[in-house]
């Protein structure tokens, strides 16, 4: 990892850029950039973000970010293999005194008897509860007949089936919104309506993201697991994520089919 950091630092200095310049362009904090260049990723919250930062940093400098990530994976695998070969845990053998073995045997036997006794008590309680249940109420037909005799009738709103328009609207909400086109690292969606409202939740883990509404950055933050955010725009909204498998997205109340990517990916929504 230190070799990759040296490559990035050398390329940055070759271009005459400071860490502040890199932070402004990529939105990656300076302390994370320093950690990458020094080869110490302990300051970065999670390997998903570390890989995403390395790739974004490298591509901004004009390097092949994917190739550097592959090199990082190879170096990490070799280092872990060496550590496993060098460190072998010593096997210890504990001799248990004969008296202690007998004590453990009696303890286990007593616990087993206790468990069986508890199971018998629970079983008897269940049987008693089942036998004490009251008889079922009269059939529903009798209740219906009584209502008819009293002149009661079901209201039309309760018995009327859903119209075709209501069914279509329900199906649209349940059907995920699919992209109309895709390109490298991008998915494009058409949204029905004059405005766009996007809700992002993170039920499966943390996710860094940036939100651009009508050409203006309105958010750049990290959602922790369980967080939820809502953003609105007029005619276009762009959502840039760092860990799309961790999030769920809805647009105008309709779930969105997301490309599952560990790393930077952009989702573009346009109102029709």
TrEMBL record:
Ranges of biased composition (kind: Polar residues): 132-145
Ranges in coiled-coil conformation: none
One example GO MF annotation: DNA binding
Region (Disordered): 77-96, 131-188
Residue span(s) of domain HTH cro/C1-type: 7-68
Pfam family, one: RodZ_C
Keywords from the named record: Membrane, Transmembrane, Transmembrane helix
Residues spanning the membrane: 105-126
Cross-referenced InterPro entries: Bact_Cytoskel_RodZ, Cro/C1-type_HTH, Lambda_DNA-bd_dom_sf, RodZ-like_C
Key word Transmembrane helix present: yes
Gene3D superfamilies xrefs: lambda repressor-like DNA-binding domains (1.10.260.40)
Highest taxon listed in the record's lineage: Bacteria
Species this protein is from: Collibacillus ludicampi
UniProt biased composition (Basic and acidic residues): 77-89, 161-175
Name under which the protein is recorded: XRE family transcriptional regulator
